[in-house]
Amino acid sequence: SLRQSREDLDALRKEIQEFSERHADAARLIEKLGADRLGLEALGERMTAFATLAPELEAKMDAITGKLELIEDGTRKAASLHESVAELDAQISRVSARVPFVEQLEGRLNSLNVLSSDVDGKLEDQLARRVELETLKAACDGLKAQMVDAQPTLDGVRDLQTTLVPLVAEVTRLRADIGAAEKRLEGAKFNEAAITDAAIIEQEKRYVALVEAGNTLATKVSEHSRQMQTLAEELARSSKMKDEMLMELDRVQTRQRDATSRIQASEDQLARAENMFNQLEARRSQTALDEKKPEVVPPSPSQPVAVLPSPPDVAPPSQPVAVVTSPPAVVGPIFQHPIRSGEPPPSDPTVSGLERLLRVSAARGASTLYLSSESRPSVRVDGELQTLDDEPVHAAREVESLLLPLVPERSHEALRARGATEWICDIEGVGRVRCMSFHDHRGPGGVFRLMPARSISTEQLGLPRQVQALALEPEGIVLVAGPRSSGKRTLISAFVDLMNRTRRDHVITIEREVNIVHGRGDSFISQREMRGDDEEMLAAARAALREDPDVLVIEDLRTGALMNVALEAAAAGRLVIGGFSAHTATGAIDRIIDSYAPEYRRQAQLALAGSLRGVIVQVLLRKIGGGRLPAREVLLNTPAVSRVIAEGKTSQLPMAIEGGRRSGMMPLNDALVGLVQSAAVEAHEAYRRSADRPGFLAALDRQGIDTSFVERLA
């Protein structure tokens, strides 16, 4: 019987070892359960964050609905455009020379119809995506309900963990008893001869008690094993549920990114369609204008151009202004392709000298012509200087003979006396030209700036509705910022043109140079040219306020005194549009506040927070294939932005712009990445113009665009 007892004890020892191993497994399962519980809590937080994105998705769906309305309006415009084409055909039948233009126009209309069909297809895809997003939202709600249902399971696991504590203590005590029994059995093994019947009976009793305790322990171990098995199954289900939820969340985020990309592509398609429609309208208007245009006799080299007396407060008597002798030419938007130098410029055998050079410059899409002695003429195209290699090198006497026919007669003596002169003339086929003559170490020379004959509209510039609405504000300050030669003057002129078409107000503009003259419209516009220093600009602004304007436009708010005048005008209920030199909206706000003395900055912050309506920052980029394209950062004065400015926490403005996309705000990096995605500009060109270059590279990486070469090429 002792041998049987030892075998039973060995079996019991093995069971206890197995129980110890199971206990260790249970401890590991408990640790894994704790880690999984933390993961589930983190997943719950991510699901909560995703739930906050639902309003943004709904807002984007609303934007898509708005785009649908725009497409319907575009369809109506296309129908109206077809009627206009019929009228245009009737006009072209009377003018046989316009046949090639009509063929080109018909091609544009066909491409517009194709583009409209493409946009309709894109919008149908967007509607399907909207239904898909709603389905995903329902799935997310179901996942959230599953998380709620999983909470009782977690509570049960915690209860099991509490139950394990006394069970472990009991197992420890039983292991101690078994150890003592083993020691007694070992003593009995060596002293069998001395064991009496009473000792054997006592050992048998103890063995029976030990067997009963072992059976009880085995029952408890079996029950605990079943509990551990149930717990392991629950953990497996929880882990599987967590993996499924993570996979579903990844799919939702991927679909959200795809939907955002497609929405952006649809917006780009709409912008291009609107641009083509506006160009067709402008060309049709120009066709009608050309039919009515009388024949203009070009100025003779022997006859000076007729001049008007100069403005009394702007230029001295030696700087006359030439009379405009032909109707203004149509000037395309900034992003329209200019005529390339590889195309032959229009030639006219009756035109020679400087007028011919100006026509050549206009045909190349130049903004400025540079004429200097002992060198070939140069032009500025897309912001870069180019030499006219086909032109000869002009000697000093030749340059003077080129200048004299266009210089007003009373300025001839100043030119011969090596003085600087300035005047404005009109050249048929070119438009208005601001002319400046000078003398340098080589001899006489001149700079001729080719000015657009009329303002470019906000629609041609592709400004969104939220930005156009800034020109319709009854009061406040609108800042147009950007680096040098970034098109700020063109953008301000487009705002004035929009007001001239939509408002009945008194508008006063104070400009360094009046390059674009606004004609008669719904508003009364008075343009003032101030060529003096900052004090004269300040005096002109203060004088303008005494004339009761509704809108005051100041081309350059370069000083704190001018900004004070702007704030006072805005506080008095006027709208002020001002130009400013800054690379970002945040930089513009900081420069304005820093222009004040420290003791007045708090007051300036409060005034600016209350008066500011928006900041538009524009940069120009070289387009692939020629021309330049604008990229804009838009800051609108929402309550959050106003609070940030009032508290002086301007470092938070970039985050406010990022979070204000639904309100119409646009970070500059978003605009730059969009141009790179549409293959309109090179990535390294956009990188040069970015104020946040690491953020720009990260945005390109998120779009799957290779950035390994960007910094090297930039």
Give a brief rundown of this model.
With 714 residues, this protein is an alpha/beta fold. It has helices at 2-94, 99-190, 197-292, 354-363, 396-403, 412-416, 465-468, 488-502, 534-545, 560-571, 585-594, 598-611, 639-646, 653-659, 668-677, 683-689, 693-702, 710-713, and strands at 307-308, 321-322, 368-372, 378-381, 384-387, 421-427, 431-439, 444-450, 476-482, 506-511, 524-529, 551-554, 575-581, 612-622, 628-636. Helix 1 packs parallel to helix 3 and helix 2 runs antiparallel to helix 3.
Explained architecture:
This protein is an alpha/beta fold and 714 residues long. The chain has 4 domains: 2-283; 307-450, 2-Layer Sandwich (Beta-Lactamase), CATH 3.30.450.90; 465-666, Rossmann fold (3-Layer(aba) Sandwich), CATH 3.40.50.300; 667-714, no CATH class. The protein has 18 helices and 15 strands. Helix 9 packs parallel to helix 10. It is elongated. It starts with a helix and ends with a helix.
Strand content: 5-15%
Number of discrete domains: 4
Roughly how many Å is the radius of gyration?
A: 41 Å
Order of strands, main sheet, comes to: 11-10-12-13-9-14-15
Structural class by sheet pairing and helices? alpha/beta
Helix % is 55-70%
How large is the count of helical segments? Answer: 18
Gross morphology is elongated
Average of pLDDT: 76
Largest sheet: 7 strands, mixed
- The low-confidence parts are 291-347
What's the end-to-end separation, in Å?
A: 94 Å
Total DSSP E strands: 15
